[in-house]
Amino acid sequence: FIEEVSLMCHQCQRNDRGRVVRCDKCRRKRFCISCIQNWYPEISEYDIAKSCPVCRGNCNCKACLRQDAQIKNLKYVQKVYTDEQNFEYNAYLLQALLPLLKRLDDEQVIEGEMEAKRQGISLSELKIPKSGSEFKRVYCDNCKTSIVDYHRSCPRCSYDLCLICCREIREGELQGGGEEVPYQFINRGFEYYHGAKDIVEHSFERNTKDCSKPTSEWKMNEDGSIPCPPKDMKGCGGGLLELRCTLSENLSSELVNKAEEIARTFNYMNVCGTPAQQCLCFTADGVTDLSSNKLRKASSREGSKDNYLYCLSAKETEQEDLKHFQQHWTRGEPVIVRNVLETTSGLSWEPMVMWRAFRQMAHTKHDKQLDLKAIDCLNWCEADINIHQFFTGYVKGWFDCENWPRILKLKDWPPSIRFEERLPRHGAEFISCLPFKEYTNPNNGILNIAVKMPFSVNPVMEPKTDIAYGVSQELGRGDSVTKLHSGKADTVNVLTHTAEINLDSKHLAAIEKLKERHRKQDRREIFGNYIAVDNVVKGKRRGGRSSNKAADERHFGHEVGDHKLEELEAAEGGALWDIFRRQDVPKLEDYLKKHCREFRHTYCCPVEQVTHPIHDQTFYLTMEHKKKLKKEYGIEPWTFIQQLGDAIFIPAGCPYQVRNLKSCIKVALDFVSPENVSECFRLTEEFRKLPANHRANQDTLEVKKLTLYAMKAAIRKLDRDYKVSGHMKATILSRGKFKRV
User: What is the 8-class DSSP label of residue 728?
Assistant: First the structure.
């Protein structure tokens, strides 16, 4: 009787807010009208009466956000694989990873042979001492690359050197561990951001005081041995670097031999390279099937078959769709999966709900962290802000004293702390919504190489949020953007929430006025009397300015016509994506080097210094620049709008950029697929050649170690679990996946 007449709301725990809606399903919970309107605006009173948020599993009250039961139900739902699937997927891994494992083994064998020759013994007689534990992360002290197994180490100072650096030293061309490059920018004040003339004398000079180049030379000895580098190169200068291993001796060679033995049992067909004609997106003649409802046009390249992206609904991701996904994924194409949030319990991603969840966790289990640092997209500097204040601006907008939209963003939030610890309910909800869990599940994805490590999950594989304000109009300066970059691994990115910031006539007028001032400033600084001092090549200017001033002004981005169609399509979406093909990267890099000074970055200064056009993350190509890129180099990205609930799969090695058309909350997760692991290898080689103080220099992915352990796990499964399973092998063979020799 007491339960029947109670007016206490489950959400706010108050009984003085008037009418409540009672749940007919559990007959215990009630929600007041105020809480329904504030916290569950998408659910009607009628639907709550049928099944309340508690029964639905998406209640966002303080108590429910802290409950562990719901988190465990979502987080530990394991995908069950049949014996056939286990065999097929592990064989798939073996086929993809064997060439890379052989490459790693070859490097180690060559180094072993060189050491045996130096000692005057045979390779079989060589004994390599073990250094440390295999569960301890070891990095090369020169290039910051993760050390997998064989390496050289100084017995005196423990200086470690990877095999690639050893090879480069012997060849007399050490590329890894580049000289540190200072990055300094002049803050010319707020007025400069909006077009004021600069009163500071313009010259960008390198400060070599703190980043002096080592004076010593590092060469191998006549017998091929490598001395420990001198102190100015962070070594001790005494003794030789001795060959060491972190894993059991000859492990890589043993794995290669075992993998080749298994491979000889089956003559694997090329399942990782299915031709385009077999893809359902093409007709029998190899022409794109435009009648398909699973294609989205994203580019207009002449004579190209990849202008359409594979785009399917989350409810369509069945087994056959996984194979279809693999066909596109193998070719390095992005994939779009729509409406993934419809597969979850429906937990709200409203900013205030996330703030409440974060606040509760901060108060109950962790230090208080309600203040944070946000990036101001106008000057790309950090600004201190209260989390509640930030989320208020996310919904209502924020404008500076000139009535220009102030765009703030939180990147990789929560910072330096596991997402699942700060926002456990949302973390579990995110993992549960991911499609193609064979790849994306961070706990047991059978085709996710990142889960094969025998110890704790690599921190780089944690979910990360990108929360930023956004407006539909392209501002040209201070836009809500993720600048052009290339991830170290594959990525899936889900748009979980949007909020539209409406610009009134006063703000629109101010924006047009300030954009005109920006255009004048660009012409004055980039095409006027502004003379830049190059900081890389002996006083020569580094691209960006043509000798023909009139031609530069005519072709500069501000003069190109508006893309009204693209703006119209963007009205209903949340974020505008541009993803470049891998084969177009060299031309893209050339364009950015040539036009670098037409872009602005820190303190709104023109980009004077380019270490690496992609990895610096200092460029965003506006619609005008994309048109100019196509005209000059004949390339264009895949461009499309990410809608609420869309999951975007980005292959490793495809540079991409994003502009928010509304305030957006996006959650991303990295994974490593067998199709793209070779591209991760290539990127690791690029990163190790960057300056030591570059943002992308350290090898946080450790893809070589991931590959070795993934191969070890696949071989163990194939050799142990299926050694005597003749029926299983016969079943797989009968399906035409593999054929016996």
Answer: H
